[in-house]
Design goal:
With 406 residues, this protein is an alpha+beta fold. The protein has 13 helices and 10 strands. Among the domains are: 75 residues, Regulator of K+ conductance, C-terminal domain (Alpha-Beta Plaits, 2-Layer Sandwich), CATH 3.30.70.1450; 84 residues, Regulator of K+ conductance, C-terminal domain (Alpha-Beta Plaits).
Length: 406
């Protein structure tokens, strides 16, 4: 199929290609920010290699889709699929640009590097200690993501990186693992891995308020862009106009954040000792905004009334991290509680990314619905709420059991 830089057509499963592209795109986002956080040329180089892999995947997908289109009806049905392919490639390119902040030694303020670990979920590097309970056990048996909400996104072993490790991956003494998850879970896993307590990094104090605001803007942009991608795939999976509309709202907010970021950065430039150190922040902001644009492309078929092609929905279902929809019934243990009070993420390992709340009354007196996007621990769960959650297959089964149990 690939000879040198040449890619030739081969009959392949578009569903499998789309699932791999989704997983690769999400991994690229994680690894690119990890590279910046760790200042690691090796992780950044892995991002570039994955970006090249994505180029091959998107070419294969486009050729297969072109071969499948034989009529006007085919073109209408497959156009949204091409949009999903193009969006995954755009995310890949943006991740590659983020990695270049490291590879090209583009300056980045320490305040920015210190803020990244706490962007939505904690990201930490841990070396597996000889006395660790993790050593010698596969990730499936450890079940970290379901038990703690923490995911191993990459493992460095004897100089090589193992990306997106599977349930069969055995953790070995001396492995350098990148773990991502909620602070409480990461603290537990880090201590299990290294034998040491985890201490979150303290951002350096800055007397420049505009610089702090610019840093906060990028972190918020990153959080919102990743949420937009999750919701976009959810809109495709559930053919939801409402979710697609939320993606549009988030993208507009990211655009506004970028404008504010630019203003604060320009103001800060006149007050920092080395204005060139702000270049890396500009690169991060631009690339992060591209990711939110890509999320809109994923959901565009739904937004344009073209619906969801079954192959895309099936690809989302078969990807490494699944999206599920669960309804809080009147006899559910969750009814009348909060996400934090019931420790939903701790019990299931699933992250609730949105809640559709029915029964709200619109201005003209009709019964409608509303979306709670990125709900927090204090978010109350009501009868009839529709939860959209993301995580492992095992975790999804636990969440369904929790929602249905009384």
């Amino acid at each position: 199929m690939v000879a040198g830089d040449d890619v030739t057509y081969e009959p392949v499963s578009v569903k499998e290609l789309l699932a791999e592209m989704k997983d690769t795109a999400e991994l690229l986002i994680d690894l690119s920010y990890s590279a910046v956080l760790l200042g690691s040329d090796e992780v950044a180089a892995e991002v570039v290699e994955l970006e090249e892999r994505m180029d091959v995947l998107q070419l294969q997908a486009r050729m297969s889709l072109l071969m499948a289109s034989r009529s006007t009806e085919d073109a209408e049905a497959l156009a949204p699929v091409l949009g999903v392919v193009g969006a995954a490639e755009k995310i890949s390119d943006a991740a590659g640009d983020i990695a270049k902040v490291v590879l090209e030694d583009i300056n980045l303020p320490e305040a920015m590097r210190a803020a990244l670990p706490e962007a939505v979920e904690t990201l930490v590097r841990a070396e597996i200690d000889p006395g660790s309970r993790l050593a010698g056990t596969d990730l499936g048996t450890l079940n970290l993501e379901t038990e703690t909400g923490v995911r191993a996104i990459a493992i460095r072993r004897q100089g090589d990186w193992l990306l997106n490790p599977t349930a069969e991956t055995v953790v070995q003494v001396g492995d350098i693992a990148l773990f991502r998850g909620p602070l409480a879970g990461v603290s537990t896993v880090y201590e299990d891995a290294t034998g040491d307590s985890y201490t979150p990094p303290e951002p350096p104090e800055s007397s420049i308020g505009d610089l702090e605001r610019a840093v906060d803007s990028i972190v918020l942009m990153k959080n919102m862009s990743e949420l937009a991608v999750d919701l976009a795939y959810g809109s495709v999976l559930f053919d939801s106009d409402d979710l697609a509309a939320e993606v549009m709202e988030i993208e507009a907010e990211v655009d506004a954040l970028q404008s504010r970021f630019e203003a604060w950065t320009l103001r800060a430039a006149s007050r920092v000792d080395d204005p060139i150190s702000l270049r890396g922040m500009v690169h991060l902001a631009q690339s992060t905004e591209v990711i939110s644009d890509a999320a809109v492309e994923i959901s565009e078929g739904v937004l344009r009334g073209l619906g969801t092609h079954p192959v895309v929905a099936e690809a989302v279902k078969e990807s490494d991290e699944v999206l599920i929809r669960a309804v809080v019934e009147s006899d559910s243990r969750l009814a009348g509680t909060t996400l934090g009070g019931m420790e939903v993420k701790t019990q299931t390992g699933m992250r609730v990314i949105a809640i559709r709340r029915t029964g709200e009354t619109t201005a003209d007196g009709r019964e409608g619905s509303d979306w709670v996007v990125s709900p927090g621990p204090e978010t109350e769960l009501r009868v009839g709420d529709v939860l959209i959650a993301k995580g492992t297959r095992t975790g999804s089964e636990r969440l369904v059991d929790l929602v249905q149990s009384s």
